[in-house]
């Protein structure tokens, strides 16, 4: 459920008429939601829909963690491959890289013993439920250590991304981290902008399930409709426009007039009347497109994930306290720095990395998206155009929308706090027997090791709980080899608090026994109406009849509840809280309102499930893409090792790589191919990103791919009926991998541009088994 759907959220339930009972610190409706959470016996459509949604959210949380780990592996291998390509990697380094690719073997490795497991259970309960320790740790670790710690924090310790207690605890940690960041900041301008562990944390937080879901629902359609127009050129940099213009003139006429020299200065290009004529309509169109993005984002206010809005709220609140003289514009520039710079704009500039589009957008739409992101950023900033003078021509967009964007950024901050509900969640956590996390051995030992490194700062007194637990645990075990890095289920429980056996005893100080009785009676009636066939249709609800009907069915559970609720009604009548004479009108109205709310809730649950189904599919697709990247690296490294072992003396075997890593001996130089592909085939598979070949000639174009020596490929572009190729290009596998590493996803073949990762995939598919 989203925050607004939760039974305990303000305005969602009907418990407002309880004769001043709702002045209590804990609302009866919130308590109802807690009781309802514990009820697992109802099996109606809503319960089934909620179960499916819960399962789906669990899958998204688990899959998000897998993707985070894979992305980190790909980043690491990118850097190592670079060394390989540059002939600068020793054999022992190669072996270390290969170990990074080993799969975990469930039969290898061992668990910590029972005593250690119990101590880790206590330690991780403390870390999860008192976020101040993790907050301090995130500030203390180095930039090179932060990714591993963030994996544990975001995807393990608080990995259930849709569970309010874990989300609230994680946000409490953010508040502590941000608060310190503001305390230690030396100047306003640098706040939250540098690449620090804190900024990395904020970016990682936006990549969790709810953030991804929001980006997909808000941006995907708009970006996809923009990138369909592959030939729409909206370049406004006068130097580039001038170059494109004279290239076109030269192509059409075969020469250039002396009045149009090459390589002119930016101001000369900007003063050219033809350039100005080309740019003018583009400015209008860019402002229209940017405005459509802006309107979509502003209208999405209510669907921005609660956590992201809450972080915006903290930024505003901390800025007002630390810099009381800061203007509203300056405060909004900081909020915009988080919301646009770290969340929205990266997804607009590289939509393929955020799974919003399939494949890399073509050249012109890619440039348009970059310009849109710059415009939105300038809008959220205190504008500064010193770096790119040509952007000043888009100033009207900024001026016209400045007030509107500030209103939006302020509105983002208007969300409620959660401290009371968190306190209640903590009560619930103490009574739960099934609080657990799934954590790998290396996450366990790494967190243990980081805490020990900084324990004097984290826990100066040896009487503090954290110090007691770390002293008992002793030194942290070393990291285990990757193949032994098993995932374990770690139950979480506290050593110091006594588990609460039931909600009532935990909350007796703030809720009277008659309130509790009323809430429980109402809860049981709602359960009975949901469980008895066709009971929801018969309105108004006759509570006495429903209780009698339940008490006389053949279902033992319903019988027990029916008898119990009849007794509870009698007690409430004795206390003069309800009256049989008016058909228990107050209770009957509230039960009806609950049932109505739950009916609406089912629709919301079904809608949310549908939306998250799409998110889950996208995350799984991205997982497959990352796995294929790793497979390519594996094949590459394996063959480098084979070649290196043949050469003995050399550090690498770059340039003689095969895709077939199963042979014990390096492959002989046998020419493979040619393998033939049509223009239509490569376009359909997304390998051709952009084509300058006229539509009517495309059916006559085909490509031959040959491998004269392992690791080397020739792509030849042919026209039917001509003996010789129009164009040939030699490719080394290293060059393609290097392009991929540098995020240069396009390979220019003059007439066509190819998608580098997909070319690598095609070469692997064609030549792997030859």
UniProtKB/TrEMBL annotation:
Region spans: Disordered: 1-20
Keywords in alphabetical order: Coiled coil
Cellular component terms per the entry's GO annotation: cell cortex
Signal peptide residue numbers: none
Transmembrane segments annotated in the record for this chain: none
One Gene Ontology molecular-function label: GTPase activator activity
Coiled-coil spans in chain: 39-66
Protein name: Ras-GAP domain-containing protein
Species for this entry: Marasmius oreades (fairy-ring Marasmius)
């Amino acid at each position: 459920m989203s925050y607004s759907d939760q039974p305990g959220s303000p305005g969602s339930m009907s418990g407002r008429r309880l004769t001043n009972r709702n002045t209590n610190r804990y609302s009866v409706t919130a308590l109802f939601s807690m009781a309802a959470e514990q009820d697992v016996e109802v099996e109606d459509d809503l319960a089934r829909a909620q179960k499916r949604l819960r399962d789906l959210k669990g899958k998204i949380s688990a899959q998000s963690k897998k993707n985070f780990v894979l992305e980190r592996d790909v980043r690491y291998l990118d850097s190592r491959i670079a060394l390989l390509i540059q002939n600068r990697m020793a054999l022992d380094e190669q072996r270390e890289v290969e170990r990074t690719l080993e799969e975990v073997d469930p039969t290898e490795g061992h668990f910590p013993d029972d005593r250690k497991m119990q101590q880790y259970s206590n330690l991780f309960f403390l870390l999860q439920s008192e976020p101040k320790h993790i907050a301090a740790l995130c500030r203390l670790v180095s930039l090179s250590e932060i990714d591993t710690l963030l994996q544990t924090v975001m995807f393990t310790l608080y990995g259930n991304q849709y569970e309010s207690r874990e989300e609230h605890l994680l946000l409490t940690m953010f508040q502590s981290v941000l608060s310190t960041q503001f305390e230690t900041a030396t100047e306003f301008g640098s706040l939250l902008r540098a690449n620090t562990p804190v900024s990395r944390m904020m970016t990682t937080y936006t990549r969790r399930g709810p953030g991804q879901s929001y980006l997909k629902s808000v941006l995907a359609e708009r970006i996809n409709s923009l990138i369909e127009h592959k030939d729409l050129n909206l370049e406004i940099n006068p130097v580039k426009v001038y170059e494109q213009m004279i290239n076109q003139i030269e192509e059409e006429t075969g020469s250039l007039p002396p009045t149009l020299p090459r390589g002119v200065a930016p101001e000369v290009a900007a003063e050219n009347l033809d350039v100005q004529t080309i740019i003018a309509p583009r400015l209008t169109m860019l402002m229209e497109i940017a405005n459509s993005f802006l309107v979509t984002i502003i209208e999405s206010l209510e669907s921005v994930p609660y956590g992201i809005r809450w972080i915006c709220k903290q930024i505003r609140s901390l800025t007002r306290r630390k810099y009381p003289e800061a203007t509203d514009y300056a405060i909004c520039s900081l909020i915009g720095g988080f919301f646009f710079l770290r969340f929205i704009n990266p997804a607009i500039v590289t939509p393929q990395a955020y799974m919003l589009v399939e494949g890399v957008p073509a050249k012109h739409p890619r440039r348009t998206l970059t310009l849109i992101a710059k415009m939105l950023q300038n809008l959220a900033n205190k504008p500064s155009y010193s770096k790119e003078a040509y952007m000043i021509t888009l100033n009207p967009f900024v001026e016209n929308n400045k007030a509107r964007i500030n209103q939006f950024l302020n509105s983002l901050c208007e969300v409620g706090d959660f401290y009371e509900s968190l306190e209640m969640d903590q009560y619930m956590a103490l009574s739960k027997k099934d609080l657990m996390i799934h954590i790998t051995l290396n996450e366990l030992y790494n967190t243990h090791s980081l805490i020990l490194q900084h324990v004097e700062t984290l826990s100066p007194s040896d009487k503090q709980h954290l110090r007691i637990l770390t002293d008992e645990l002793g030194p942290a075990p070393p990291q285990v080899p990757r193949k032994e890095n098993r995932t374990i289920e770690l139950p979480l429980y506290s050593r110091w608090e006594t588990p609460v056996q039931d909600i009532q005893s935990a909350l007796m100080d703030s809720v009277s026994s008659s309130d509790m009785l009323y809430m429980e009676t109402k809860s049981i009636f709602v359960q009975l109406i949901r469980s008895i066939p066709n009971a929801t249709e018969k309105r108004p609800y006759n509570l006495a009849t429903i209780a009698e009907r339940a008490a006389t069915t053949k279902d033992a559970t319903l019988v027990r509840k029916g008898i119990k609720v009849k007794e509870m009604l009698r007690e409430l009548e004795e206390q003069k809280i309800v009256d049989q004479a008016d058909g228990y009108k107050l209770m009957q109205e509230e039960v009806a309102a609950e049932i109505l709310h739950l009916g609406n809730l089912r629709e919301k649950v079904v809608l949310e499930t549908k939306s998250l189904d799409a998110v889950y599919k996208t995350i799984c697709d991205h997982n497959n893409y990352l796995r294929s990247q790793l497979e390519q690296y594996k094949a590459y490294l394996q063959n480098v090792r084979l070649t290196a072992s043949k050469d003995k003396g050399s550090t690498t075997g770059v340039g003689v790589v095969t895709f077939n890593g199963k042979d014990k001996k390096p492959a002989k130089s046998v020419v493979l191919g040619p393998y033939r592909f049509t223009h239509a085939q490569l376009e359909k598979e997304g390998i051709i990103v952009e084509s300058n070949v006229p539509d009517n000639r495309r059916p006559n174009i085909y490509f031959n791919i040959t491998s004269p020596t392992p690791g080397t490929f020739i792509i030849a572009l042919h026209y039917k009926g001509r003996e010789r190729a129009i164009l040939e290009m030699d490719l080394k596998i290293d060059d393609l991998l290097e392009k991929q590493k540098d995020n240069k996803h396009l390979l220019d073949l003059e007439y066509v541009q190819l998608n580098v990762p997909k070319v690598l995939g095609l070469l692997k598919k064609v030549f792997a088994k030859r």
